[in-house]
Amino acid sequence: MSDTSPPLLEINDLECIRDDRELFSGLTFSLGQAEVLQIEGPNGSGKTSLLRIVCGLRLPDKGGVHWCGEDIRGNREDYYARMVYLGHLPCIKGDLSVMENIRVLLDTRSMTLPDSDIEPALYKVGLAGFEDVAGKALSSGQRRRVLLAFLDLAQADLWVLDEPLTALDVQGVALMEQMILEHREQGGSVIFTTHHGMQLDCDMRSVRLGRVS
Amino acid sequence: MGKAFYHVLMRDIRLALRSSHELANPLIFFVLVVSLFPLAVTPTPEALRAMAPGVIWVSALLAVLLSLDRLFKQDYEDGSLDQLMLSPNPLMVLVLAKVLAHWLLTGLPLVLIAPLLGMFLALPSAANEVLVYSLLLGTPVLSLIGAIGVSLTVAVNRGGVLLSLIVLPLYIPILIFGANAVDVAMSDMSVRGQLLFLAAVLALSISLAPLAIAVALRITASR
């Protein structure tokens, strides 16, 4: 990529109003390749809303999100093929096995992988041997780990992670940190929010959202 | 795109088959309501025959209405709906697959059991045949229109009443033409007009409803 090409993700003059309360306005930042960005702010400051706007799930009240120089609303296909969003919700179906859950998630990205590719990812997140266990039998931490395996397999350039450390134990947190570092080394970018301390051994920028009183 | 359609369809069918008690609910409701009617009125064949088209159609309509919640509720609550909306594939194709799965698992069983209930209610065999055709054309429309309503109300707590208010007015033409087709068939007149109308509404719904559902889901998600 040449220096003149636009950054991966650009946020321009974003404003979000929720229930007549302005969460943020005039928010502008950009994210390039191999960059890690943390969204900081107290509860209710609009971190989740911001990430949902970045994904195009929520419409901003003003401003826009641009992916490779194009507005994401006119460019969903390319954008969604190259990004993954993990929100608060588990996305795990209790009636499907771990393997089926991962397949369903990959299917929505039009990725079909053989079992032999999925098994190493499950091993990596500490779920080896859980392939045939039903989603409802998993603990909430294990459900998060299934999502980490999905993240690992998704081959996306941009990860948008909303509180990725929720319900994870110490090893899980370390795993998440390691995955972000690896992703960055391979040229991937990450935007995340967290209230837990994430110790990332790399350059990391942050955007702070304040409560507007 | 075709593959994405197939994957969503298979996922929904598999999920529904794993929780089969939910699957049987609309069918049991349909059979119970229709078979209770003869007990409540004078069960002469003439009386039963006269009310059969209306009773069967209204019960089928309510059975579909009661099952609509299942279409998006669980996906909304566990976050799968977000992932579906973040798919690189067009959302309208994916929702059409979901609606097709819903119809295959609720509408189609109703269509298949309907002739038996028609016999309970002393429908002549010609009218029974028309009953199957009219339900075959009508129930997919009920699923498609219902899906628009569900996608608007899925985020509303206890949105059931709201859903009925949105969806029922749109169901009424289907009910009228569907039941009327069976009625007319009993007097040995041509039902071509009614069936063609239902087929036209079905074609219109298949082409336009997915668009409306996709837009409604995006509105719901942006709350």
Task: Describe the protein in words.
The complex is a heterodimer of chains A (213) and B (223). Chain A is an alpha/beta fold and 213 residues long. Chain A has 6 helices and 9 strands. Chain A has a single domain, classed as Rossmann fold (3-Layer(aba) Sandwich). In chain A, the strands form 2 sheets. In chain A, strands 6-7-8-3-9 form a 5-stranded parallel β-sheet, sandwiched between helices. A 4-stranded antiparallel β-sheet of chain A has the order 2-1-4-5, covered by helices on one side. In chain A, a hairpin with a 2-residue loop joins strand 4 (62-67) and strand 5. The mean pLDDT of chain A is 90. Chain B has one domain. Chain B contains 9 helices and no strands. The longest helix of chain B is centred in the middle third of the chain and has 30 residues, at 91-120. The A-B interface holds A 52, 55-59, 76-78, 80-81, 83-85, 87-93, 95-96, 100, 104-105, 107-110, 112 and B 3-4, 7-8, 11, 14-15, 18-19, 77-80, 82-90, 94, 221-223.
Give a concise summary.
The complex is a heterodimer of chains A (213) and B (223). With 213 residues, chain A is α/β, with parallel strands linked by helices.
Descriptors:
heterodimer, A: 213 residues, alpha/beta, five-stranded parallel beta sheet, 6 helices, 9 strands, 24% strand, B: 223 residues, mainly alpha
Mean pLDDT across every amino acid position of chain A: 90
Main sheet specs of chain A: 5 strands, parallel
| Second-tier CATH architecture of chain A | 3-Layer(aba) Sandwich
Helix and strand content put the structural class of chain A at alpha/beta
Task: Provide the helix percentage of chain A.
Answer: 25-40%
Instruction: Please state the overall shape of chain A, judged from the principal axes of the Cα atoms.
Output: globular
Count of structural domains of chain B: 1
| Low-confidence residue ranges of chain B | none
Q: Please identify the structural class of chain B as seen in this structure.
A: mainly alpha
